[in-house]
Design brief:
This protein is an alpha/beta fold and 395 residues long. Helices cover 31% and strands 25% of the residues. Strand 7 and strand 8 form a beta hairpin. It starts with a helix and ends in a 10-residue tail after the last strand. Bound molecules: pyridoxal-5'-phosphate. Pyridoxal-5'-phosphate binds next to strand 11 and helix 12.
Length: 395
């Protein structure tokens, strides 16, 4: 039985739209991430999962330790449900959440905030009472790649902290303030971890990507090591986090890095098909029903316009996955309430049949569905809520 037959059979009694998680594929993907990490623990990036029961199941497997959350309210919520060691990977300006953090000994013990400037330190200090338990902080380091005297930049625009002296100064500032404890350092090389080195289209572009990534990795190995050394003179770091799904084996080779992060690799969305170093199995899919047939080789499905975040373009569209061979209309793309799909496979589809899609990114899918149907073999064995299904929309 092929995957399409399995998924159709498992959900035959259900009416789409709905989302499924192929558990065998999820487990295989998780095992592959652990293999690639070569013994260093993987912190689970919750933004790419966005379902508490699934996060818990992943964390119960060998090789995973701690959560990389995306907002402080999310981290507080996860900790209130018993999760521990939660790193908020992005700075927060949420005063109410900071006050809640400072009011809870357990939360203050389990949650680490991200900072990259004295401005962050001042802001947090102003938001929490003076006698609060010390808050755990992680320093965010810019891991982007600069060339041609800074005129070319690859990587996400995040932290202004780049050089060892700057990082050590900020660490010293933190050490002076009694309300804080610097426990971690994070440097995420988005230009390697999040950019496929086997992109579709131009071979010349692929060569440029690979060259940039090789140079960036070489530069980072030295700089990340120097920054970690400089910060360790001032603070007792518990962890140094780096990387993501696309860079694991490269990141963990650095001695200075104690753990890596990964999230997208669990669901293996469309954008992660374009790497030479690893492959995964599509684990999270959504089904949309065929509701009309405008022409013999066209079907229209309900909904579909679940575009991924990031710089806009065709790569952000969901992929019509099964049956293979369907494509969007250039005029309509993926629509708000209906989506025409063109191609020969449409000839065999009838009203009520389903088309299976993959999201371009991983966790954003869960903002569209209240639950994930867990598929084992050709059966749905359980339904678990997404964040949205638990009434939580953190972003
Ligand atoms: C700080 C940080 N680390 C790691 C990742 C990698 O996550 P994923 O494995 O989902 O690509 C991201 C994604 O944006 C990130 O922001």
């Amino acid at each position: 039985m092929d995957d399409r037959q399995r998924y159709d059979r498992a959900t035959a009694e259900l009416d789409p739209p709905f989302a499924i998680l192929d558990m065998e594929a999820l487990r295989a993907n998780a095992e592959s991430l652990v293999r690639r990490a070569g013994g260093k623990p993987i912190r689970v990036a919750s933004k790419s999962v966005r379902s508490r029961p699934i996060l818990e199941r992943i964390l119960a497997m060998d090789g995973f330790r701690g959560v990389m959350a995306f907002t402080l309210p999310e981290a507080l919520w996860l900790v209130s449900h018993g999760l521990s060691d939660v790193l908020v990977a992005y700075p927060t300006a949420d005063r109410a959440a900071l006050a809640r953090l400072a009011a809870s000994e357990r939360a203050a013990r389990e949650i680490t905030l991200m900072v990259d400037s004295a401005e962050h330190l001042d802001y947090i200090e102003a938001a929490v009472p003076a006698n609060s338990p010390p808050l755990r902080l992680c320093l965010d380091l810019d891991a982007g790649y600069l060339a041609f005297g800074g005129r070319f930049r690859a990587g996400a625009l995040r932290s202004p902290v780049r050089e060892p002296a700057h990082a050590a100064d900020l660490a010293a500032d933190i050490a002076k303030r009694p309300g804080f404890r610097l426990v971690g350092l994070m440097a995420y090389e988005a230009q390697i971890a999040g950019v496929g080195d086997d992109p579709p289209g131009s071979a010349a572009f692929a060569r440029v990507v690979r060259l940039m990534q090789a140079r960036s990795a070489r530069e980072l190995i030295l700089r990340r090591g120097r920054v970690v050394n400089a910060v360790r003179q001032v603070a007792d770091l518990e962890f140094v986090n780096g990387g993501g799904t696309g860079s694991i084996e490269r990141t963990v080779r650095e001695k200075a890095v104690t753990e890596c992060a990964a999230g997208s690799g669990f669901f293996h969305p469309r954008l992660f098909d374009f790497y030479r170093g690893f492959s995964g199995r599509p684990a999270a899919l959504f089904a949309l029903p065929v509701v009309r047939r405008p022409a013999p080789d066209v079907v229209t499905v309900l909904g579909g316009g679940y575009l991924a975040s990031g710089a806009p373009g065709p790569s952000r569209l969901p992929q019509p996955y099964l049956p293979p061979g369907l494509r969007y209309s250039a005029d309509e793309g993926a629509g708000e309430v209906q989506t025409p799909l063109l191609g020969q496979p449409a000839e065999d589809l009838r009203v009520g049949d389903r088309v299976w899609f993959r999201h371009a990114k991983a966790g954003e899918l869960c903002e569209r569905f209240a639950g994930l149907l867990l598929v084992e073999g050709d059966k749905v064995v359980e339904e678990v809520p997404t964040y949205r299904g638990e009434g939580k929309t953190f972003l």
